[in-house]
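Let us work through a complete example step by step.
Step 1: write down the sequence.
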Amino acid sequence: MIRTLKFYLGKDLLRATALATVALTLVMTVFAVIEPLRERGLSSHQALKLFGFSMPVMVSLTLPIAALFAATIVYGRFGQDNELMAARASGICTLSLLTPAIWGGLIVSAITLGLGLYVAPRLLWRSQYTVKNNLRHIAFHGLRTQGYLEFSGRILHADRVDPDSGWMEGVVALDTSDPNDALYLVASRAKLDFFERNGETFVAFDPENWAARRQSGRSVLILQKERIQRGELPNPFEDEPKLYDWPKLCRVWAHPEESLLVQAEARKIKRRICTLMFYQDLAGAIKDSGKYVKLKELPAAGETGPASRIEVEAPWARLQAHEVVLTAKPPAAGGAPAGAVERPVRVRLFRGDRAEREYSAKEASVKAEWDEFSRASLVSLTLEDVIITDVGEPLPTPRAKEREEIGPHAVPRWIVADSEGIDLQDLRAHPGSYGLGQGVAGMTAALDSVTRRLLAKVAAEMHMRIAYGVSCMLMVMMGAALGLIFRGGQMLAAFAISAVPASLVIVMLFMGKELIKNPGVPEVYGIVALWSGIAALAAGTAYVYLVPMRR
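Step 2: predict the structure and record it as tokens.
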């Protein structure tokens, strides 16, 4: 008889848990994942594909709540229908009737841990490629519905857009990389194109009948205009520990340098080091010989013929944080020999061994920065009060301009290779050995900060997944006991009763996780807060099973 009764309770638990899980999972998947991405332009086929990837993630979240809800209903109805009274009259122990709930809690915990630790993160990681392959449609959808597109710190607006042809009308682009002097471009229409480079999606637009200015009123140079025209499309998914399965969480905890976040920060530091090394090489060459001859022009796509190069001559160079300033006037605060006179900054452009153009200016600023589109460190020169002479013509005629921009040029390859070969651990231990100045300490501190935040997130994710899986068994056991105590046969009463322990655990889990992730709070506080909810639930479950259930 007792086996038949346990089978009956177990069957009802399974059926109620399955129905509740399906209902909760469908609702959460549609409203939490599919609907927002559909609004951003996700196609029906890819939305369905993403739905399949997201289902295990949602099941890992909804299954424990559904099992708790089902246990409360089944055992509440069992008590309300006087079946409990009949069982006790037959000499059946109440605790033995809760055996199906205990086994059900163990099974739910095992499934939740398996999904949360292995299956769900891997499918969630794969789902980002579904969205990533649809970035073009998402971009056009944003232009049509919102009227603008954000990419790489730029904002692109279009009054009308045709996704089939890629043409936009009424185009306005804004670049706020310099918050004190924003750059804006307007055009009657522009052609929008997308490119794949090293696994990333880039957007570029080619404007017609365009005009560009700066907020300060200064005119925009060609290179500045080209930079606003292209950039990397934002990916809705980022490399986060929530996308890591358990083996990867353990690997990243032991070796954080394997994380894409740390690797990206390390690449950023090496690019900055490359820039500093170039600036020092340029300033040192100008100081020693007054000339720098190592810059070669970056060839355009499909360009053939002899390589272009430039020679820079300047009497004085001033090394600043983000550029090198070449000046014709001797420095006011020392550094110039007695009787030094003003000599112009000269730049000669060569095609092969043949000189084509010469620039003579009062001042030139040399700036190097990483370009995501071409995946190279590029150098541009901005000349002030410049005289341009096309020396390759039979009768060269000098012409004067207020400003002229030259470039882009590639940073010398040996500098790039040396910067890539720097060991960041060695740089942290011996910051002065590379002669890069005081900025090295700040760069290594930034890398340490990223690593600390990553490890805090990994620790929070590990504790969260284990604690949530362990709590499943306790929640199901508590729900079954509460159902018997309160006879909660009504749906609303059962839901209210089961929500109390679930809410306590979920609130403490998320609060503890956020405390662990917060670098300003000792990690132990977060761990205590996260596991205190589990401890309280375990104590409450033990009390209910040892006191009321024995009566």
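Step 3: interpret the result. The radius of gyration is 33 Å.
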